[in-house]
From TrEMBL:
The keyword ATP-binding does not apply. Residues 497-519 form the Ice-binding protein C-terminal domain. Residues 1-14 have a biased composition (Polar residues). This is Ice-binding protein C-terminal domain-containing protein. Residues 15-27 have a biased composition (Low complexity). NCBIfam families: PEP_CTERM. Keywords: Membrane, Transmembrane, Transmembrane helix. Residues 1-27, 50-70 are annotated as: Disordered. It comes from Roseateles aquatilis.
């Protein structure tokens, strides 16, 4: 594989599965946040223990996401028949309940006033909800898998461990079995962007069973071929269930146009996006050489990819995916422009023990003239990969989550700082979307990523999460900043503008006044009728 810069590579730790404030990882995180970059006197990810969520050792109440088994046709028909019978019984029950609240004309004079129509409807609705609740509980959750690296699992707290108890970290067990090549400052289990997404679905009333298969600096090629030296079966994670939805996140510089000194490989990106998408949808066993898919010969493949002719000619045998799902929705997670590839004042090094990022004072190479230029390159690369995956009729890519474009929109709309290295970056009053290393996201960037993914995948407006959104509060993001980032994601995805909170308040007041006026009119009419009868 093409080399990846040391400070952009993130791996895991040999620490125990815990997140208590006294763990070795806690001390490490505190040191890391205390030693921020020399050009910025702040920690964009916030102090880990100050805003870290509750300990993530609790078991998932929804279970471990074991794959479902197909039922025999007769059994399935029987269950459907029973379900239909139960629905009919509850419908009859609801009708009888509603009728019981309907006043009947009698010759005797009642001493109690009849229930209003609204009261009858409210009572019937409440009982209907109670009656149908068991049926709703039987609906299966939407199974979604996030495939990626530290851009998905979050790199640092408070994002890295966020909501880990409520998602399935599929590499946690692999790491526990063999932590070789991992970073001690990134302990499992991880929550990350997937954990934030899960919280959004809960608040939106959606039932999502969220899993994540991530490894530091992993490319999609690395996931599919299991190129990691630790023996983690990442492809096995992809094939472990019949997923309803899968999100693919590529290594950050892999999709970029090839340049001297840049570890990019757009041919690998497009090729392995297509192979993974086909394997998810069709599940066929594969036997191929990369030269057959790229260039047509060992020499041409080597020239295009930068790999050796031996690598291009190696036979790759991939077992069939027994859990393939032709109806699965596959999405691409478009990543963001990296300041450390644009205008970094120097290179950096990452401490192997603490994860602290320190400038070296050595000049850094620039590969793009601006963040906008790099974003445009990423946008085109993701569009190309999606087009290739959809050209063979295998099902293709459902959509691209434009996270990188949302980052640029946050800058253009005056929400995020345009230059993390500027002397005014710490005092300009704008949000910093990047961590100290200039490649990973800060908690604000991860929150914006999750918002954009949420809107893309669910079709719901991220702005609907609103002022009291829980994940933002847990991450230490103010309500004001959460609303700003929600609006950025909403605008990027093309949702219609939502009235400001003040407009909602005025609308609510108006509705309340109309209701009060109507009630007074009805009350006056009733009193008049009683007076006439007397």
């Amino acid at each position: 594989m093409p080399p990846t810069s040391r400070w952009a590579t993130c791996t895991t730790s040999p620490s125990a599965r815990r997140c208590t404030a006294t763990s070795p990882a806690s001390t490490t995180r505190a040191r890391r946040c205390a030693s921020t970059s020399a050009w910025r006197r702040r920690c964009p990810a916030a102090t880990a223990e100050a805003s870290r969520p509750a300990c993530v050792t609790a078991s998932d109440p929804s279970g471990e996401g074991a794959p479902g088994r197909a039922l025999p046709t007769a059994s399935l028909e029987a269950r459907l028949a029973r379900l239909g019978s139960m629905i009919q019984q509850r419908r009859t029950l609801i009708m009888s309940i509603s009728e019981s609240f309907t006043p009947r004309r009698t010759s005797s004079v009642s001493t109690l006033p009849p229930l209003s129509r609204r009261a009858r409807l409210l009572a019937a609705t409440a009982l209907a909800v109670a009656a149908l609740a068991p049926l709703a509980a039987r609906a299966e959750a939407t199974k979604i898998l996030f495939v990626g690296n530290s851009y998905t699992f979050g790199r640092v707290d408070p994002v890295m461990s966020y909501n880990a108890a409520n998602i399935h970290d599929l590499t946690a067990g692999m790491y526990a079995a063999n932590p070789s090549g991992a970073n001690s400052f990134e302990p499992h289990p991880w929550g990350g962007v997937a954990g934030i997404f899960k919280q959004f679905t809960v608040e939106a009333g959606l039932d999502y069973d969220v899993s994540m298969s991530a490894r530091n600096a992993a490319s999609l090629r690395g996931h599919f071929l299991n190129t990691n030296t630790a023996g983690w079966d990442l492809r096995g994670n992809i094939g472990s269930q019949a997923w309803d939805k899968v999100v693919l996140q590529e290594q950050s510089d892999e999709p970029l146009t090839k340049q001297p000194g840049l570890a990019s490989n757009p041919a690998y990106f497009s090729t392995y996006t297509n192979l993974i998408e086909n394997w998810i949808h069709q599940g066929n066993a594969l036997s191929y050489r990369e030269r057959d898919l790229i260039g047509g010969s060992n020499a041409a493949c080597a020239a295009i990819t930068g790999a050796s002719t031996g690598t291009c000619g190696t036979l790759r045998n991939i077992a069939a995916n027994s859990n393939a799902n032709a109806a699965a929705d596959v999405y691409l997670y478009q990543t963001w422009a990296r300041p450390n590839l644009v205008n970094a004042p120097s290179t950096t090094v990452t401490d192997d023990n603490t994860g602290a990022v320190t400038p070296t004072g050595q000049p850094a190479q620039s590969f793009y003239t601006s963040l906008q230029a790099m974003t445009a390159d990423l946008k085109q690369a993701y569009a190309n990969a999606a087009a290739l995956a959809g050209a063979d009729g295998s099902g293709g890519i459902k959509g691209v989550a434009p996270v990188g474009e949302a980052f640029m929109r946050a800058i253009s709309e005056g929400v995020a700082t345009p230059d993390m290295y500027a002397s005014t970056a710490a005092t300009d009053g704008l949000l910093d979307l990047w961590f100290d290393d200039g490649t990973h996201a800060s908690k604000y960037g991860s929150y914006l990523s999750a918002l954009t993914l949420f809107g893309t995948i669910t079709g719901l407006d991220p702005a609907s999460l609103g002022l009291n959104e829980i994940a933002a509060r847990d991450l230490g993001i103010s309500a004001r900043d959460a609303l700003l980032l929600q609006r950025v994601a909403s605008d990027q995805l093309g949702f219609a503008a939502v009235p400001e909170p003040g407009s909602f308040a005025l609308a609510g007041l108006g509705i309340g006044l109309l209701a009060l006026r109507r009630r007074r009119k009805v009350g006056n009419a009733v009193q008049g009728a009683r007076f006439a009868a007397a």
